[in-house]
């Protein structure tokens, strides 16, 4: 069980970093009410999602399976991870990414500059 949770957190970090970088560098995230769209899922109490999750998982036949746990944990952790990465990406100077792209790096390679 501990390995599963660790793998889920790693998946959440990969998904959040892949989502946060283009959203924040292209100012899409800031246009969505200064990032409040992702925070709504994190701030809302998880209890209000129990009934919709249960209905959804029983309709698709995943009630009581690992797949349902993976989907539910990802919908909770990915918005929180994007919010955490927001301050990290905002502190990275744009000139660093720009200089990497002048040197011939693609957007994906420039993403790795601030690792």
What is this structure, in a nutshell?
With 115 residues, the protein is mostly helical.
Written description of the protein model:
With 115 residues, the chain is mainly alpha-helical. It has one domain (2-114). Helix content is 75%, strand content 0%. The chain has helices spanning 2-25, 28-31, 36-43, 50-59, 66-91, 94-102, 107-111.
Task: Give the uncertain stretches in residue-range form.
Answer: none
* Estimated radius of gyration: 17 Å
Structural class: mainly alpha
Number of domains: 1
Could you say which overall geometry the principal axes of the C-alpha atoms support?
elongated
State the end-to-end CA separation.
29 Å
The overall strand count is 0
DSSP strand content: under 5%
SSE arrangement, N to C: HHHHHHH
Tell me roughly what share of residues is in helical segments. Answer: over 70%
Question: What is the average per-residue confidence, as pLDDT, rounded to a whole number?
Answer: 79
Number of helices: 7
Key descriptive features of the protein:
single chain, 115 residues, mainly alpha, 75% helix, 0% strand
Task: Lay out the secondary structure.
Elements: H1 2-25, H2 28-31, H3 36-43, H4 50-59, H5 66-91, H6 94-102, H7 107-111
Helix pairs in contact: 1-5, 3-5
């Amino acid at each position: 069980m501990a390995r599963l949770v660790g793998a889920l957190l790693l998946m959440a970090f990969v998904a959040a970093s892949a989502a946060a970088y283009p959203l924040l560098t292209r100012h899409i995230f800031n246009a969505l009410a200064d990032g409040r769209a992702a925070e709504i899922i994190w701030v809302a109490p998880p209890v209000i999602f129990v009934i919709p999750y249960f209905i959804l998982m029983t309709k698709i036949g995943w009630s009581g399976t690992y797949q349902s746990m993976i989907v539910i944990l990802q919908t909770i952790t990915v918005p929180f991870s994007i919010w955490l990465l927001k301050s990290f990406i905002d502190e990275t100077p744009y000139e660093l990414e720009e200089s990497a792209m002048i040197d011939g790096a693609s957007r994906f390679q420039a993403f790795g500059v601030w690792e």
